[in-house]
């Protein structure tokens, strides 16, 4: 496994809450996908979930070595929650081009939050070389 890049971010939840209050729907649609907006709004502490996704996207930008200044949109990244709570980074648009160009096969992300802060860590992992055997799948969760 070759690491292409890593990234981390921390953000104050009230800061994201303030941006949502001031800019409303315009801010939400500029930063988050429709699916992310629905997910966060369905949660009890929505602001913390929005802040965690902000931090995750910032961490992914760092891991990929790119960001909005290079033409990658915030909504080119989507953080999805799997059935067992595992996180998956989906890429689209310009982010997909960056992933291909840099040889990234997978982006791992971890998020955490409390009332005050949200933090995230991301790791971009290289695509395996052609002909390289795939690692065995992880054992099933108990």
From TrEMBL:
Q: Per the record, what are the reactions this protein catalyses?
A: apo-[ACP] + CoA = holo-[ACP] + adenosine 3',5'-bisphosphate + H(+)
Name where it mostly resides: cytoplasm
From the Swiss-Prot or TrEMBL record, state where the protein is found: Cytoplasm
Name the residues that bind Mg(2+). Answer: 9, 58
Keywords, comma-separated and alphabetical: Cytoplasm, Fatty acid biosynthesis, Fatty acid metabolism, Lipid biosynthesis, Lipid metabolism, Magnesium, Metal-binding, Transferase
List each copy of the 4'-phosphopantetheinyl transferase domain by range: 5-99
Its Gene Ontology molecular function terms?
Answer: holo-[acyl-carrier-protein] synthase activity
Could you say which EC number(s) this protein's record lists? 2.7.8.7
User: Pfam families under this entry?
Assistant: ACPS
Q: Which cofactor does it need?
A: Mg(2+)
The top EC class, named as a word, is transferase
Is the keyword Disulfide bond assigned to this protein?
Answer: no
This chain's function reads:
Transfers the 4'-phosphopantetheine moiety from coenzyme A to a Ser of acyl-carrier-protein.
Q: Which family does it belong to?
A: Belongs to the P-Pant transferase superfamily. AcpS family.
Q: What is this protein called?
A: Holo-[acyl-carrier-protein] synthase
Species annotation: Paludisphaera mucosa
